[in-house]
């Protein structure tokens, strides 16, 4: 079920993209559960818009592998695909390791300060056990890295691929994956960038992104009905 406090729609961006992001977030944080039915009519009423932008958002969600439309049956949140999780991690590592290596040469002092400030905000979110806020800061951290090499397209590519990976990450935060450990990994990336050491930055990023390999198994064992059968 959708939360009642969905963000208000802005006049400065296409409505379908705003609805897509809101629904994607609800799927990633398991507000909308794997297998749950969703209705374009109910969603359009909740946002106060026609059904067309909701249907457009559904098309993007289908493309991301997050929902499926079954004729004569309805629209449902997809179960988590183990293959998409592992493939998403593989592709994300290939892209972000290259981003980190390039950032060691190109990142500005101002961007380094922004990353350091982001980490301080992560610490506050962890102290409050606010996993939603922590994930938002994590996204901001990695977006800043792509901006630092003037290649935001790298992050946009990753966003389309990592949706199933994000669902596992959200389930693991705080219970299986320590927020403090993730903060330490982010700090190691910043240290490597501040040292202008491409090899160190590459290794720090690689270690950070491979953390999901450790959390995936336990999360799947705890929530077997939320995962597709292989």
From TrEMBL:
Residue ranges of every copy of the HTH gntR-type domain listed in the record: 13-80
Keywords: DNA-binding, Transcription, Transcription regulation
Family annotation (SUPFAM superfamilies): GntR ligand-binding domain-like (SSF48008), Winged helix' DNA-binding domain (SSF46785)
InterPro entries: GntR_C (IPR011711), TF_FadR/GntR_C (IPR008920), Tscrpt_reg_HTH_GntR (IPR000524), WH-like_DNA-bd_sf (IPR036388), WH_DNA-bd_sf (IPR036390)
Name of the protein: GntR family transcriptional regulator
Organism this protein belongs to: Uliginosibacterium sediminicola
Lineage, uppermost ranks: Bacteria, Pseudomonadati, Pseudomonadota, Betaproteobacteria, Rhodocyclales
């Amino acid at each position: 079920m959708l939360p009642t406090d969905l963000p208000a729609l802005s006049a400065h961006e296409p409505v379908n993209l705003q609805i897509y992001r809101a629904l994607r977030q609800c799927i990633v944080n398991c507000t909308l559960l794997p297998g749950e039915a969703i209705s374009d009519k109910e969603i359009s009423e909740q946002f106060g818009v026609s059904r067309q932008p909701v249907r457009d958002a559904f098309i993007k969600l289908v493309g991301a592998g997050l929902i499926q439309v079954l004729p004569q049956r309805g629209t449902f949140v997809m179960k988590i695909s183990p293959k998409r999780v592992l493939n998403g991690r593989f592709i994300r590592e290939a892209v972000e390791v290259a981003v980190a290596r390039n950032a060691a040469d190109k990142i500005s002092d101002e961007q380094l300060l922004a990353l350091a400030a982001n980490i301080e905000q992560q610490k506050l979110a962890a102290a409050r056990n606010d996993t939603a806020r922590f994930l938002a800061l994590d996204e901001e951290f990695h977006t800043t890295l792509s901006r630092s090499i003037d290649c935001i397209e790298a992050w946009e590519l990753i966003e389309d691929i990592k949706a199933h990976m994000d669902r596992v990450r959200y389930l693991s935060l705080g219970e299986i994956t320590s927020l403090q450990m993730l903060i330490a990994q982010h700090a190691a990336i910043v240290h490597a960038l501040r040292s202008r050491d491409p090899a160190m930055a590459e290794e720090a990023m690689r270690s950070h992104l491979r953390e999901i390999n450790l959390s995936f198994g336990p999360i799947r064992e705890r929530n077997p009905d939320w995962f597709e059968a292989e």
